[in-house]
Amino acid sequence: xxxxxxxxxxxxxxxxxxxxxxxxxxxxxxxxxxxxxxxxxxxxxxxxxxxxxxxxxxxxxxxxxxxxxxxxxxxxxxxxxxxxxxxxxxxxxxxxxxxxxxxxxxxxxxxxxxxxxxxxxxxxxxxxxxxxxxxxxxxxxxxxxxxxxxxxxxxxxxxxxxxxxxxxxxxxxxxxxxxxxxxxxxxxxxxxxxxxxxxxxxxxxxxxxxxxxxxxxxxxxxxxxxxxxxxxxxxxxxxxxxxxxxxxxxxxxxxxxxxxxxxxxxxxxxxxxxxxxxxxxxxxxxxxxxxxxxxxxxxxxxxxxxxxxxxxxxxxxxxxxxxxxxxxxxxxxxxxxxxxxxxxxxxxxxxxxxxxxxxxxxxxxxxxxxxx
Length: 372
Known about the structure:
Blueprint: H1 16-27, H2 46-58, H3 87-92, H4 96-101, H5 103-108, H6 111-117, H7 124-135, E1 150-151, E2 170-173, H8 205-215, H9 218-229, H10 242-246, E3 249-252, E4 258-259, H11 271-285, E5 306-310, H12 312-317, E6 327-331, H13 348-360
Parallel strand pairs: 2-3, 2-5, 5-6
Antiparallel strand pairs: 1-4
Helix pairs in contact: 8-9
């Protein structure tokens, strides 16, 4: 994976029934739709998708009576892969202002997430948030620092959504993106490759732990815990956790943006309400496409995931989650102030794999040691 590209846009697959409904909707719509791909072509080129989005937003007239195709309005929860979604119909149902404000979401948000969050991002609070970000210089994927004083760069704000919803098995909750240059890329506790990891981290666990605390880098202290649980773990020379995201670990911050050099500067702007909705969606559909064994009827619905809630803030966010459906793992935050007060020795990574194997089989385990 290129260090300068977001995660591959790998989405959940539609059932034949939903694809049929989508084709019927598209037949009455202008322009070319961005469709779900089959398993052999699940990775969709970003350039092609962006070209199609540009056509939708700027090149086609809105047909009369266009209605967005979305989740069933029935009180019965539909299966994830049976939820129809047409990008053409969705965009054509927007007002001109919505098209301007939500272009980024339609361009880069993973489609398995967009189809279940499509109504959420049109709510007044989210549009207010987008107006705020617009004033901050966040317009499109072409915006990059230093022109934009917001991290991560816009094209990576929704990197977390490239973990397909139906394949989410673990959720790790963060709070705020890193606010220094070249660090944040849309995944909590993760930094871009190229952020230097000191050579002394190769000297053994004790020295590693001391250095992690001195540098105040959360990912280094997470590595220290993994090393304690899995002694065979070879500490990488970077802090990029994209491999976990590709393996079904949702790395989600409370606020998805931050002003350069100002931690928590975008708190209470609306992101928390949005990411709470993301957590609620995981409750409904997280792991929907994981192996179901003999119980095939369970496929398509969320049957439980592992939540890792580190610190008081994260603990509050999962308080409403069912402890019988999910595995809720709480501990102190992996910060220098609390690492030795409950994070170190929490055993979360092994506990997560034991629970996943019991519930979904050995293939559901996460290889925490593979980060290259």
